[in-house]
Amino acid sequence: MSLPANKLVFVGSMGAGKTTAVRAISDVEPVSTEMPMSEDAMGDKVETTVALDYSSIELDDGELLHVYGVPGQRYLDFMWPMVCEGALGVIVLVSAGHPDPVASTVELLQEFSRIAPDASLAVGVTRTDEHPSLLIPEFRNALFDAGHRLPVMRVDARSATQVTFLVKSLLSYRYAETK
Ligand SMILES: Nc1nc2c(ncn2[C@@H]2O[C@H](COP(=O)(O)OP(=O)(O)O)[C@@H](O)[C@H]2O)c(=O)[nH]1
Ligand SMILES: [Mg+2]
Known about the structure:
Layout: E1 6-12, H1 18-24, E2 31-36, E3 47-58, E4 64-71, H2 79-84, E5 89-95, H3 101-115, E6 120-126, H4 136-145, E7 152-154, H5 160-178
Parallel strand pairs: 1-4, 1-5, 5-6, 6-7
Antiparallel strand pairs: 2-3, 3-4
Bound molecules: guanosine-5'-diphosphate and magnesium ion.
The site of guanosine-5'-diphosphate (GDP) has 19 residues, from helix 1 and strand 3.
């Protein structure tokens, strides 16, 4: 039996790309609890996650990284502490098309730095291809002004390479922090 494993959590509002990101990087068939949305299907998004996404990836050193996706909606916040228990990192995903990406990201960063004080945090901005008006440097500065200095980068959740790069950035940032 292996003991407490490496664990990484993606959080973000609906449509941020959590399910897609977890699927993109998974080695094993990911488990997810998608339910068809009854009405108001937003554009091409016809399913939403009612609970968790889960998968695992093998790191360069052969260790297994367990990856979870957890909804950012408040009414599901009872799940946050459970999912974050022992997590080494939390990645906030935010769609560049979100009506208020800064406020929503700051709120999640505040919550998760409280819930998971030992986890490293990073932010991935998805869907910048669809919403090019969101500029990453400005976004990063806004988070910095709100007291969050952390890796912020654009990521297409559909790209295994880009999601893996984000995960590796968080892991190396964490390593640098704890040195
Ligand atoms: N064009 C584009 N679509 C993306 C990007 N990232 C995610 N998506 C799409 O956004 C939709 C919502 O993603 P999903 O993973 O279901 O979001 P979740 O609600 O956070 O789990 C899916 O159709 C994804 O393929 C991106 O960077 N660009
Ligand atoms: Mg989902």
